[in-house]
Predict the 3D structure of the following.
Amino acid sequence: TMKNPVPQAASLLLEKLLLLVHIRPLPAGSGEETPPPAPSYYDTSCFKRGDLLEVPRTLFIHFGIYLGENRVAHLMPDILPAITGDRRQIQQVVTNKRLILGVIARTASVRVDMVEDFAYGGSILVNHMDRLFEDQVLGSEEAACRAEKLVGATAYSLLWNNCEHFVTYCRYGAPVSFQTEKFCETVKMIIRDQRSVLASVLVGLASIICLGVAPSTTLPTIFIPFFLWMAG
């Protein structure tokens, strides 16, 4: 007998939606975030100004541009820039609550943090995306200057303005997000599978809440099977 694909599709959807918020895992049984590693944890001597840094996570990759002197510019969802101009508060390490509220409000900031705060204990890959862009790599100084000019509050969108769009614009001159493309393909696959009705509804609701809108051509595909399923 064929297994019910709904739980599997819903589980896959939940994993992919974590791309939206870049949530950092919390230790079991604790309500506090784990502190970042000590400054000596990373050897930054191999990093050059303008390098594109990647930190692979379980379900996503976080990106930043190295500015030199142990500093990284990276884009993160954050609600604080929308409600306060206090730079001291904004510059504090972004908490999960700030991240989630930033995603919901579609606000973010391009911020400069130490390598330790940027990587948060993860391993770092350097210029790993260069192989995908071949001759499009800009000069290191130009990439760093582009990142520095963008520091500050900005809009956030999974589809149009996330951390990967930021770094690819800085280093390659074109904002691209391969993670977004994979996410959208997963969403399309779930929606096309009429057996995954519940997952399709979750996709629709998540797109409305997190992205603000859902394409008009997609809405009928999401909700009509749901109503048919309810009627049946």
In short: Residues 167 and 210 are 22 Å apart (CA to CA). Strands lie at 52-56, 61-68, 71-77, 107-114, 125-126, 152-155. Residues 25-32, 212-232 have pLDDT under 50 and may be disordered. Residues 178-192 form the longest helix (15 residues).
